Amino acid sequence: MEIKKSPYCEPTMAIDGAPAVLGFAPVQNLLNLARVNSLWPITFGIACCAIEMMAAGMARFDLDRFGTIFRASPRQSDVMVVAGTISKKLVPTIRTLYDQMPGPKWVMAMGNCAISGGPFAYDGQYAIVNGTDKIIPVDIYIPGCPPRPEAFIQGLLKLQTLISKGTMDANRRAEKAAGRAKK
């Protein structure tokens, strides 16, 4: 019997003359597995996209099957979903909610208004922010006006995939936030 060596561990004991391999995954992989299966978004629905986000949580689409449970408190959330047009008066509120979320945290911009200002962004306008990424770092963009609940679910699944691969880590988030602070 041939035993393949694991990159995570070495054979540590022998059972009946054959080495027994104990498999240990890196702790970060285990944490990512837990994070993937329990995303708790804070709802920040500002306009019509919020209706589609609420529909995704209802029985027909059932986000609970993916481990996603909407939370009303930023201190209990790890995903912020910005859905709708952002006025300049809302900027301090969005930053405050983002800062109150524990890390690691992720942001999804849902709908054309949250991504680029939508139809309200034009030359000479003074009240609309041209995208969530002008305020806080965004990880997933969900286009549409408004995007369907299926698109929202696809965005959550994409976020889960990125987290499970370890490509969305706290260090990248901190670097991105520091880069924004310097500007």
Q: What's this model, at a glance?
A:
One of its GO terms (molecular function) is NADH dehydrogenase (quinone) (non-electrogenic) activity. The protein contains six helices and six strands, in the order E-E-H-E-H-E-H-E-H-E-H-H.
- Name the strands of the widest sheet in spatial order: 3-4-5-6
Structural class: alpha/beta
CATH class of the domain at 39-160: Alpha Beta
Distance between the termini: 60 Å
- Relative helix content: 25-40%
Main pleated sheet = 4 strands, parallel
Low-confidence regions: none
| SSE pattern | EEHEHEHEHEHH
Q: What fold name stands as the CATH topology of the domain at 39-160? A: Rossmann fold
Q: Judging from the principal axes of the Cα atoms, what is the shape?
A: globular
**Total E-strand runs:** 6
Q: Average pLDDT across residues?
A: 81
- What portion of residues belong to β-strands? 5-15%
Annotation field: number of helices: 6
The CATH architecture category of the domain at 39-160 equals 3-Layer(aba) Sandwich
Radius of gyration: 21 Å
Protein described:
- The protein is of the alpha/beta class and about 180 residues long.
- The protein has a domain of about 120 residues: Rossmann fold (3-Layer(aba) Sandwich), CATH 3.40.50.
- It has six helices and six strands, in the order E-E-H-E-H-E-H-E-H-E-H-H.
- It has a four-stranded parallel β-sheet with strand order 3-4-5-6.
- The chain is globular, with a radius of gyration of 21 Å.
- The termini are far apart.
- The model has no long low-confidence stretch (mean pLDDT about 80).
- This is NADH-quinone oxidoreductase subunit B.
- It catalyses: a quinone + NADH + 5 H(+)(in) = a quinol + NAD(+) + 4 H(+)(out).
- Its cofactor is [4Fe-4S] cluster.
